[in-house]
Structures are given as C-alpha cells and as structure tokens.
Amino acid sequence: MITVRSILFNVCFYANLIIRMIVLSPIYFLMPRKAAYAIPKSWARSSVWLMEKIVGTTFEIEGLENIPKGGYIFAPKHQSFWDTFALLPYLDDPVYILKRELMWIPLFGWYAGKQQMIPVDRGARGKVMIDVLKRTREVLAKGRQLIVYPEGTRRPPGAEPVYKYGIARMYRDLDVPVVPVAMHPGLFWPRRTFLRYPGHFKVRVLPPIEPGMDADAFFARLIEETERASDELLVETIARNPNLPIPPSAARRLAEINGAKIASATA
C-alpha cells in the first residue's frame, strides 16, 4: 500500500507543479514581485495537502513566535526535498542562493528570476563571491529572509552533522540574526527513493542567534543548539511513529542517545 500511495503522490505532486507553472505563469509574471510569491506559496500548501491526503503525513510547527521581523538568515536542517518548499508559507519574503545552473531551467528558472533569487557559481572565488555577498546584503536590507542550509546538502536523519563554516562567515559579514530550525522530514520523504511514509513530525523553530558574536562562537552555538533539538525530535518522532521504517543513520544515533542517557543515569 505504501508503494501505491507513494507512486500516486509523486504523480500528483509533479503534475501539480507543472500544471500550476504553465497555467498560472501569465498571472505570475504580470503581478508585482512580492505579490506573485502567493503563487509558489499556494503550490507549497497544496503539496503538503497532497502528502497528507494521499500518504498520510502530517506535521506541526513549534516556535513560530521565534521568527523575527525583517531580514534574517533562516537556517534549517536539510534532509529532504520537503524542506525546500514546505516552510515557504511561514516566511514573509524568502530568497535562496541557488546554483546558477538552476536558473537555466525553463519555467523554474524564470520563476526564480522573478523572485530575484541569487545565482552563484559554486566553483567561483574572489570577486564573484564578493558580488554575491553584496547582493545578499542588499536583499536582507529590504527585509527579506535568506534561506541557508548550514550543512550545504541533504543529510540522512541522525547522520553525523557536517556543518559548513560558510554560515559563520555569512553571520559575521551580514550582521543579521540567524534562526536555526530542527526537523526530520527525511524520515517521511527520504532522499534517493520514491517512497513516502505516513506519520506525524514536528518542525522546531529555535530562538534567533542575534548578531554580534564571534564567528567561531556562533558556529559552535549553532551546531550545539540545532543538534540538541534535532536529537530530541528524533527520539520523539520515532516513539510517536512505531511503524515507521528507521534508516541506519537514525537507528545508530538513537542508540547513541539512549546509551548516553543510561550512562548518565548510572554515573
């Protein structure tokens, strides 16, 4: 049944994306930029709805009160394609730094260009990266929210964290709050497979880390706070969804957490 529901969901998900892009493009490109964001946000909500109705996956968000006003860096854990779109409706005017090749994709690249996403050549250095930082500072000054995945790429649930120091450099140079976000959508929408799993999970928005800290101290704090919340949610999510298949990385981390608790209790 999970296989059938997963296939049905994937067909509906991509059909929903393609049809909306084609049908709504004339409206989207005629609207003012920020007002036009309602269209991709509506797609995000409809995709979440499809996953709930077809697969049976639901989620809730804790800590929305921690989201500040104006410009800031939104720094979520990255496990799944789910976390690239599902939280868009909760942000006022988000912007991504994208691989420049994504901007060349018909329709998608045009949509991203309309929202003034920031393309970057990941192999670039020097002046190109200075220009990217300048553009990023400009959009933040306009009150937009920069979405940055601190680990850079998708990581399986429970995997050893591999944070990139670039987030600390951005924190130092951009002088805005950073909002860490912990969650485990990768348990329900795993990477590198078409299967989708039913169940319920939480997204936890942590208090912002205000600007002004030393970059190294910020980096250590970001990792510690995000990973502590991530461990708590991993334990809670697996306990709440006893029939959920657990990937090896999550099983190992769960064993480490339980082992640390036993050692602490017997010390």
Automatic annotation (TrEMBL):
One of its GO terms (molecular function) is 1-acylglycerol-3-phosphate O-acyltransferase activity. Keywords: Acyltransferase, Membrane, Transferase, Transmembrane, Transmembrane helix. The keyword Transmembrane helix applies. It comes from the Bacteria. The chain crosses the membrane at residues 7-31. One of its GO terms (biological process) is phosphatidic acid biosynthetic process. The keyword Transferase applies. It holds the Pfam family Acyltransferase. SUPFAM superfamilies: Glycerol-3-phosphate (1)-acyltransferase (SSF69593). Residues 72-186 form the Phospholipid/glycerol acyltransferase domain. Pathway: Lipid metabolism. This is 1-acyl-sn-glycerol-3-phosphate acyltransferase. It comes from Rhizobium tubonense.
